[in-house]
Amino acid sequence: MEIKLGDVQTTALIPVAIKASESLRPNARVKDEVAVQMIEALGINPEPYDKFLSHEGVIARTVMLDRMAKDFIAQNPEAVIVNMGAGFDNRFSRVDNGKIFWFDLDLPDSIAVRKKVFKERERVQMIEGSVLEDGWTQAVKEEIKKRGGSQKAPVLFLAEGLFMYFTLDEIATLLKGLKENFPSGTLIAEQNNPMMVKNQKYHDTVKATNAVFKSGTWSGQEIAALCPGMTLVEERSFNEEMKKHSFRGWLFAALLPKMNDRWARFDW
Questions:
Q1: Contact, 81 vs 93, CB < 8 A?
Q2: What is the helix, strand, coil percentage profile of the chain, to 5?
Q3: Does residue 260 sit in helix, strand or coil?
Q4: Helices (DSSP H) in 147-204: which residue ranges?
């Protein structure tokens, strides 16, 4: 299989390689057969992408986001969910309750590859588009309408491995677009910190790509402040999960508690 991806989109191969590696381990914390098949089909050597800290970070963020998504779905069983910057993520298979509707949104090159890898699935739609533009929102609004949704229809937006590739101005554009197009909603977005931006050349896996981190924050409140009416509900470090599984993960959390990425939930 031949793939052509932009610099940022290429970073989507990092979690694919890591999830494939984890899936093949005994007592795997994450099972992703599509990731295993994709790495084999592409003939990708996972070694440059599968370093210890990145491996533990990706698995921790996956476990945590799966849990947060399932919690949201349990409270909103017919929710509409938009996976922004979806890459080759297979989260729908892990959290589906048989009722939700799921959108995988990404740039055209990523969606073109995604369509080669993922079969068409009921209640899943792939959309080409930039999260910074409004073109993709119509399909989501139509699905909410089909479901008899009102202005309070439950809609969840996921942003995994996305914000760090945007400037704060671009993040503000994204947030304002969500708020203008959807009267209410929930966003769960991965946050990194300014030190990661400053020292990105030392990142154990992203340094193997041409992608560039453009922003970071010390608190999700800095993100909420970019868009009036956006409220930070909670913020949780990946350290919570990482420290459970290895001494090195525990040590990283103990020595550098603010250096890891976090999940932040925003409501409006």
A1: no
A2: 45, 15, 40
A3: coil
A4: 168-181, 194-198
Domain 64-267 indexed as CATH 3.40.50.150: yes
pLDDT per residue as tens digits for the range 13-27: 888 889 998 898 999
Structure tokens at 85: 């910057």
Could you tell me the two tokens for 223? 């993100």
Average pLDDT over residues 100-112: 93
Tokens representing 254 are: 């103990």
Task: Report angle CA 263, 267, 268 to the nearest 5 degrees.
Answer: 150
Helix spans in 29-121 (H): 33-42, 52-75, 91-95, 108-117
Rounded to two decimals, the pTM is 0.88
Quote the tokens at residue 265.
Answer: 């939930």
Q: What angle do CA 266, 240, 237 make, to 5 degrees?
A: 40
What is d(CA 107, CA 15) in angstroms, rounded to the nearest whole number? Answer: 17
In terms of DSSP bridges, do strands 262-267 and 186-191 run parallel, antiparallel, or are they unpaired?
A: antiparallel
CB 265 within 8 A of CB 201: no
* pLDDT of residue 62 exceeding 60: yes
pLDDT by residue (tens digit) across 183-219? Answer: 999 999 999 988 877 665 544 444 455 557 899 999 9
Tokens of 81: 């969910």
What is each CA distance from 169 to 47, 86, 165, 222, in whole angstroms? Answer: 35, 21, 12, 12
